[in-house]
Design goal:
Bound molecules: iron/sulfur cluster
Radius of gyration of chain A: 24 Å
Structural class of chain A: alpha/beta
Oligomer: heterodimer
Strand content of chain A: 15-25%
CATH architecture of the largest domain in chain A: 3-Layer(aba) Sandwich
Helix content of chain A: 25-40%
Number of helices of chain A: 25
Largest sheet of chain A: 7 strands, mixed
CATH topology of the largest domain in chain B: Alpha-Beta Plaits
Order of helices and strands of chain B: EEHEEEHHHEEHEEHEE
Number of helices of chain B: 6
Largest sheet of chain B: 3 strands, mixed
Largest interface: A-B, 42 and 32 residues
Strand content of chain B: 15-25%
Strand order of the largest sheet of chain A: 5-4-18-17-16-6-7
Radius of gyration of chain B: 19 Å
Number of domains of chain B: 2
Shape of chain B: globular
């Protein structure tokens, strides 16, 4: 038996999916320009391990749907609107956008024509309406180099700070709380440091599905004696390894953590030295949490007072305790308050700056840390330097050779608002799919349709691209070289393994070409030179470059990369803001309380096999095969109350819209709430979600809105 | 207790931390002791025994699990060692499927590579109708299980338990019917397997292989840094 002979080479790179940042090698069939196998590599974050996405989910790169030529919208396809079907139900198969339904509305164009059109329109709006009528969405799926160039183009070329990305949708509130509390948004300790923790609080996250390889180290620590305290509203599989699993009611986080702090203070388990020397405002915190004894919040939180006390005692007595959190903390209208509580909890027990301690908001995207570091944020230049600080601005004006706007720009949700109102007229969207990822998609659709000019650069025809005037074909992660920064602050180099299909180009080139056409030439010898310019205007990355990063990368900060791996633990003696600010928080009501009409709380999130809006993973044969369709998870008691059986088609409706989807009856979800994964466009969770945002982080409340559920008539299931 | 111990391996002196295994010590001085069940990523278990060496003790010792002792004189290359390894390999090759799914796709079947090193072309130990003969499990979308190629080295089980901590795999059955199993011995695709692929990555034989490579013969031409 002889198989088809494949002559291959091995390319060392990094997994393109999640923030764990697993190092891997791709075995590349050079002649056929495809990856045939992924192998785990001995990276700092994974020690050779991979999860299903990293190991088997790379085939999207060579999917037939890849965009290979620039496209221009046909005259007859105006006014703009959605082009593909978007409903769902028993009679319709799910799946990503079918290009056959969308392509007839576009014609192929040369790069010259397409770029000319982009330049003319964007520059035209800038001249006519001013730079603030333009906006850009970059992506945490792009490299640091791409993020840096993208925000540079928007700021210096367009003349506005209206540049943001999906961090707004995941950890903006965590970052806001961390910046306020300690003056830095990065994690203090790497994931694997959990091996040295006595206790780890793992809250509002589902690591075995969303950070699978990080979860292996958590489970390993548990097996070696680290006590896990798992807090959630939907039982995550990591709870099987926990010393305690505490199922709290959705939205009761602030009360719960205030009660834990109440016990810790009452029992004298605080670290008085640490509080005295490294924090401020303890008295105000103490006064606030005094109002939250476990006995009085138990019912609201849905956890017995004794169990809250026990969790607090375990945490308070630990020699070293670590806190991990995810979107279950951040994606609320009080997400910043939730994070403030966790920061205070770590601070009053003296749990930072030592092995096995610290705060680790688990980052979702492979490069959400890096994209934020590189300045894809409306209020700050690279390295969190404020745009409204005149000294900072003067430095960037000198570096970029253009006057820069002193006004912080609009966030993701504010840009949508702006487009609706007509204040934002033109947009450049690189690799984001707000149509599926942002709250209240009906509103996003209207906003996108109202734009005078939209250019979308992506690797597939996304739902967002359906609203574009011009679509530019970019490259997949495996088709380019660039750095990404994982949840541990580890900067790692992804290497090009494949050629982009057809006429598709490297994204950093396309950004530079657009810059050229709007009259702001940006030229670089190669992508390493882009990194050097970026690193040069930050403290965190200052000493790094592509050569020194090599195959294994470094943790930043890393002043001496020739001899050191960088810092796995930061803030040993002081915080960037000096002392940590303890910010007390009070329980606030949810943005949309349940009532008789909409009695259930909707929670949204991800599943192991899929990634965000599914544009990549739903085009991977293996991943799609493992998880082909959306579902709504509901507790057996609630299901019985609604006459719903496992596998039934149901309608889930909120005040904003409704979707049709199959029910999964599972007892791991709390009574009174339902869960819908965000990946499936035909049953899009964000049709239902509420666009209200957290006042500090401006993050939408993806984890909380009121819905109702009803069984669809049986005759429809064919 | 001393922090280090000194010994000789094939006459070469070496000093290693207390508790280091003979295999580790040999590796430190560039002596290659063959292994199948052992991997530096996992706890050593000493089940395949191809790493046996002479230490002067009554029996041959499995180097991957045997701690070094002060003054030990280890021989890794005697006739007795070679004879034993050859016999072990021949036993492991009994009933081995032809072809091995790993050998034909990626060419890195470790059992066959070792057999070549020991100039073993066939095995005398064949048994028609063996318990695992022809037993394949193709229920997983990512991994093909060929029980006939399994040498019960337990790498997959340790990969699943101790690296990924998924606790899906185990051994089932006894005697000649012993085999690797998923959950309570259900087909892989119906088990709680999360398809991380660790078992396939650590398997040294054709027992657990990447399904998507079926029909390909991958030859890595150049290693790029
Ligand atoms: S854990 Fe994350 S980075 Fe690692 S292989 Fe899975 S998706 Fe990729």
């Amino acid at each position: 038996m002889t198989g088809q002979s494949v002559s291959a080479r091995v390319v060392n790179s990094v997994c393109p999916y999640c923030g764990v940042g697993c190092a891997l090698s791709w075995v590349v069939d050079t002649a056929n320009n495809r990856i045939v196998e992924a192998r785990g590599r001995d990276g700092a974050a994974n020690l050779g391990r991979l999860c299903v996405k990293g190991r088997y989910g790379f085939d999207y790169t060579t999917h037939a749907h890849r965009l290979a030529r620039p496209l221009i919208r046909r005259e007859q396809s105006y006014p703009k609107g959605a082009l593909s079907w978007d409903d769902n139900g028993p009679h319709r198969p799910g799946g990503p956008v079918d290009p056959q339904t969308v392509l007839p509305h576009f014609r192929e164009a040369t790069w010259d024509e397409a770029l000319e059109r982009v330049g003319e329109n964007l520059a035209g709006i800038r001249e006519r309406e001013g730079g603030d009528a333009l906006a850009g969405f970059g992506s945490a799926k792009g490299s640091n180099e791409e993020a840096y160039l993208f925000q540079k183009l928007i700021r210096a070329g367009f003349g506005t700070n209206n540049v943001d990305h999906c961090t707004r949708l995941c950890h903006a509130s965590s970052v806001a709380a961390l910046l306020e509390g300690i003056g830095s948004g990065g994690v203090t300790n790497i994931v694997r440091d959990i091996a040295r923790a006595d206790v780890a609080l793992i809250t509002g996250c589902n690591p075995t599905e969303n950070h699978p390889v990080a979860a292996t180290f958590m489970k390993e620590a548990a097996a070696n004696g680290t006590e896990l305290l798992v807090v959630n509203t939907r039982r995550p599989a990591i709870a099987d390894h926990a010393a305690m699993y505490l199922e709290i009611r959705p939205g009761s986080d602030v009360s719960f953590y205030n009660a834990m702090m109440h016990v810790i203070i009452r029992e004298g388990l605080i670290d008085a030295d640490f509080i005295a020397t490294r924090t401020e405002n303890f008295d105000a915190l103490k006064a606030t949490v005094a109002d939250y004894p476990p006995e009085s919040v138990a019912e609201f939180c849905g956890v017995e007072a004794g169990r809250i006390t026990e969790a607090a005692l375990r945490f308070g007595r630990a020699g070293a305790a670590m806190v991990f959190w995810g979107m279950g903390i951040s994606q609320h209208t009080h997400g910043t308050d939730n994070a403030r509580c966790l920061i205070a909890l770590a601070m009053i027990t003296g749990n930072t700056g030592r092995p096995g301690t610290g705060m680790h908001p688990l980052r979702g995207q492979n490069n959400v840390q890096g994209a934020s570091d590189a300045g894809l944020i409306p209020m700050v230049f690279p390295d969190y330097q404020k745009v409204d600080d005149p000294d900072v601005r003067a430095r960037f004006e000198a570096l970029w050779g253009r006057p820069l706007s002193p006004t912080p720009g609009r966030t993701v949700t504010e840009i949508t608002e702006g487009a609706l109102e007509g204040a934002i007229r033109g947009m450049y969207i690189l690799g984001e799919n707000p149509f599926v990822s942002d709250p209240d998609v009906e509103k996003v659709r209207k906003a996108l349709a109202r734009l005078e000019f939209l250019v979308v650069q992506d690797i597939f025809l996304t739902e967002t691209a359906e609203f574009a005037d011009v679509i530019l074909p970019g490259s997949a992660f495996a088709e380019k070289t660039g750095t990404v920064t994982n949840t541990d602050r580890r900067v790692q180099l992804g290497r090009q393994a494949l050629r982009p299909p057809g006429e598709a180009r490297q994204d950093w080139h396309i950004i530079c070409q657009i810059a050229q056409r709007v009259g702001y030439p940006m030229e670089y010898a190669d992508v390493a030179a882009v990194f050097d310019e970026f690193a040069g205007c930050t403290d965190s990355y200052a000493s790094l470059n592509h050569t020194v990063l090599g195959d294994h990368g470094r943790w930043y900060p890393c002043p001496d990369p020739e001899h050191s791996e960088g810092e796995p633990i930061v803030f040993k003696d002081t915080f960037p803001r000096g002392r940590a600010l303890l910010v007390p928080a009070r329980q606030s009501p949810p943005v949309e309380a349940t009532d008789a009409e909409y009695p259930l709380v909707l929670n949204t999130g991800r599943v192991l096999e899929h990634w965000h809006t599914g544009t990549m993973t739903r085009r991977s044969q293996v991943l799609h095969g493992l998880s082909p369709e959306g579902f709504v998870e509901i507790h057996p008691d609630d299901a019985a109350g609604h006459g719903i059986a496992d596998g039934d088609w149901v309608e889930v409706a909120s005040r904003r819209g409704s979707i049709r989807i199959r029910a999964q009856v599972r007892d791991r979800i709390a009574r009174g709430s339902v869960f819908v994964p965000m990946h499936y466009r035909e049953a899009c969770a964000n049709v239902l979600t509420h666009p209200a945002v957290d006042p500090d982080g401006k993050i939408p409340a993806f984890k909380y809105c009121a819905v109702r559920i009803s069984r669809l008539a049986a005759k429809k299931s064919a | 207790m001393n922090d280090t111990v000194s010994l000789t391996i094939d006459g070469q002196p070496v000093e290693v931390p207390t508790g280091a295994t003979i295999w580790d010590a040999a590796r430190a001085i560039g002596i290659d002791i063959p292994v199948l069940c052992h991997s530096t990523r996992m706890r050593p278990v000493g089940v395949c025994r191809v790493c046996v060496v002479e230490t002067g003790a009554r029996n041959l010792q499995a180097a991957c699990v045997r701690p070094c002792e002060q003054g030990m004189e280890v021989r890794t290359d005697t006739d007795k060692v070679e004879r034993n390894r050859r016999m072990l390999l021949e036993l492991l090759l009994g009933d081995y499927p032809e072809p091995s799914a790993r050998e034909v796709t990626t060419g890195d079947d470790a059992l066959l590579a070792l057999a070549r090193d020991y100039a073993l072309e066939t095995s005398r130990f064949h048994r028609a109708g063996g318990a695992t003969e022809g037993r394949r499990d193709t229920s997983s979308p990512v991994i093909v299980v060929d029980h006939q190629a399994c040498i019960l080295c337990d790498r997959c089980i340790r990969g699943c338990d101790e690296l990924q901590h998924n606790h899906v795999m185990t051994r089932s059955g006894k005697g000649a019917t012993t085999h690797i199993a998923f959950d309570l011995d259900v087909p892989m695709g119906e088990s709680t397997c999360v398809a991380c692929g660790e078992c396939q990555a650590v398997c040294p034989t054709g027992a657990l292989t990447n399904r998507s490579l079926q029909g390909l013969r991958v030859v890595v031409e150049e290693e790029r840094p």
